[in-house]
Every structure is written in C-alpha cells, then in structure tokens.
Amino acid sequence: MRLTPAEYRRLPHRRITLLGMSGVGKTYLSNMLRREDWFHYSGDYRIGTRYLSEPILDNIKAQAMQVPFLRTLLRTDSIQIINNITVDNLNPVSSFLGKLGNPERGGLSLTEFKRRQALHHEAEVSAMLDVPDFIHKAQVLFGYPHFINDAGGSVSELEAPEVLETLAQHTLIIYIKASEQNERELIARAERDPKPLYYREAFLDEQLTRYMVAHELEYVAQIDPDDFVRWVFPHLFRARLPRYEAIARDYGYTILSSELAQIDSTAEFDDLVEQALEREGPD
Questions:
Q1: For 145, which DSSP code?
Q2: Mean pLDDT score across all residues of the chain
Q3: Which tens digit of pLDDT belongs to each residue from 57-110?
Q4: Is residue 27 part of a domain?
Q5: Exposed, middle or buried: residue 120 (CB in 10 Å: 0-12, 13-18, 19+)?
Q6: CB atoms closer than 10 angstroms to residue 258
Q7: How many domains does the chain have?
Q8: 252 strand-pairing partners
Q9: Residues with Cβ within 8 Å of residue 214, at least 6 apart in sequence
Q10: Is the pTM of this model over 0.85?
Q11: In this structure, is residue 71 part of a structural domain?
C-alpha cells in the first residue's frame, strides 16, 4: 500500500504491518496503540495458539512422559496439559523451536531441528495470510477502527511472495530499522540471553558449516546450543537487514527505532508515519 501523508491522514481505518528484528519496539508500539482503539494482531501469538498449538503441547508432553510420576498420570488421563500463551508470553513457541546441538544440554538433532523450523515456517506464512480475515473481524466483530499487525522478526526470511503481496494489499507496511545503538543492544541481549530463532535453511546450512569448521567439531551433537545461538546471531542480524530494506523499498516505508523511542501516543505515531511517507514518497 502506497500513500501520501494527506491520504494517510484521511483514512477512516488505519491498517499497518510492523516489520523488524525482535527488540526494535514492534510489540511495545502495538501495546500502546491497543490502548487507543487499535486491534493488536500478534503473528507469534497466532502461530502459537492456532498453527503450532498441537506440536507445542506434544513437545511438552514428551518432556513430561520422561518423568515416571507424570507419565502415569498422562497415560490415565488424570492430568491435562494446556498452553498459557499470551501476547507478552510466547515462551511455549520458543521452547518448541528449540536450539541445535548437544542433547545433554537441551539441544536438538539437526533432523529434528529442521523439522521444527519447517513447521514454524508454514505456521508463520499461514498467520500472515490470516491478516485480511482479522482486519475484517477487528472492525466488524470487535468494533476496532484501526488494525496493527505485529509481525514476527522472521517474516523477512519466509521467501513467500504471497505473504508480502497480501500484507501490502491490505496494510501499510512499516519497517522499523534498528539504530546503531539499538543494533549493539540487540546483539548484546542475544549474548546475555540466547533464545531460539528461526533460520532460512540455506542460511542455517551455511552458518552451521562455518561454525563446525571454526570450532573443529565433527558432529552436531558436540555443539553447545547456547554458544551456537550467540555466535550466529550477529550473522543472522546482518543477513536480515538487506531483506527488510528490500521489503520496505518494494512494498512499504521505513522508520528508525530511535524515532519510535521518542513517541508515546497514537497522534505522535501518526505524525511519524506521515514523516516516513513524506520523505520516501509514493511510487
């Protein structure tokens, strides 16, 4: 969707997709807008509660079945395991994705890791293609005039043109570009707390080979799961940047995370969007 600032200002229903690395402020902004008549659609929440709900529960049950006391209760239907996923608590999704490496340190085999990555890819594509339906529900069913799509950090990795075309047709795509300071903070955060991530398979294969050679390892089972995430994150970050920039160039607009950090109201957000439309202009 391409608009002039005046056209954006006149929209009775504003529909926006936020793209960018996890940690640049997408969910912070979405939560702020939600308090001011915007429907908050979280791609990761939709993935966890709709498309990966059963695999996530199966993964939890598999862990529970290793405990004799719990195994007996599960096999006799004496207990029930449920997800408690919220927009602000997506840990079940992360725990399902898992990390690659030594099983004694909680790592997954390459085969299992890639299986889960593929399931996540399918789920994320489906969640993004659901956006038009939820735009309709947000307005007609729940009465929200505006809609914000808080997309996952890995949307740029999907290589699914139908996703970008759908989002561009129904929403204004805004890429939140990390400032240099924000980049350093995100990389430092990954160092302190390495979390499961989604990787394109070609990228994973390339970086895994480099890691194995650099660390003189013969088998994936020798990898320290946390160490691999720490090592690969800066490479992933830099690999995603040109992908985000291409999406913004072809389908949307860019704002800086440093600009976003200065706003605290819907009116200020609208002003920021109009500034982005003004400086980049419509095609």
A1: S
A2: 94
A3: 999 999 999 999 999 999 999 999 888 888 888 888 999 999 999 999 999 999
A4: yes
A5: buried
A6: 14
A7: 1
A8: 173
A9: none
A10: yes
A11: yes
Residues 6+ positions from 188 with CB-CB distance below 8 Å: none
CA distance 100 to 115: 12
Q: Is 68 exposed, middle or buried (0-12, 13-18, 19+ CB in 10 A)?
A: exposed
Amino acid at the residue 158: L
Identify the CATH number of the domain in which residue 242 sits. Answer: 3.40.50.300
Domain encompassing residue 74: 11-271
Q: Which of 62, 106, 96 is nearest to 223 (CA)?
A: 106
Asked whether residue 155 is domain-assigned, the answer is: yes
Q: Cα–Cα distance between 48 and 30 in angstroms, integer?
A: 18
Give CA–CA dist 19/247, Å, rounded.
9
Question: Which residue in the block uniquely carries the two structure tokens 């996530």?
Answer: 56
CA 116 to chain centre: 15
Which of these, 44, 240, 244, 25, lies nearest to 128 by C-alpha position?
A: 44
Query: Is residue 283, in this structure, part of any structural domain at all?
Result: no
C-alpha distances in Å from residue 66, one per residue of 79, 100, 103? 15, 20, 14
Report the pLDDT value the prediction gives residue 23, as an integer from 0 to 100.
86
